[in-house]
Write a structure and sequence with these properties.
2 helices; Hypothetical upf0131 protein ytfp; about 55% strand; three-stranded antiparallel beta sheet
Length: about 100
């Protein structure tokens, strides 16, 4: 199964993609409205925009990505300018204030 993944941080880096998937993932530019990027995280913020990319991953690549993001991140589906996609966000339990 194919999954659309919205990436806004390290998952955009070619060296990370090569390390995780053994190749660069073809991507398209996308935006996430009403969120802002804070360090390695995204947080809801009305009127803000996070620029990123969307690429497709298969089930195995999604498992690999889950392991990379670890227990510190949660994965959920969200609406982007390119339709619905999965995204990772730091779990509230691990937020640093």
């Amino acid at each position: 199964m194919k999954h659309k993944l919205f990436v806004y941080g390290t998952l955009r880096y070619p060296n990370i993609q090569n390390s995780l998937y053994g190749k660069l993932k073809p991507s398209i530019e996308a935006k996430l409205y009403n969120y802002k990027k804070v360090g390695l995280n995204i947080v809801e913020d009305f009127g803000e925009v996070v620029e990123g990319e969307i690429y497709e991953v298969n089930d195995k690549e999604l498992e690999i990505t889950d392991a990379y993001e670890s227990e510190y991140y949660r994965r959920f589906k969200i609406e982007t300018t390119r339709g619905k996609a999965l995204v990772y966000q730091i779990k509230k339990t691990y937020e640093i204030n």
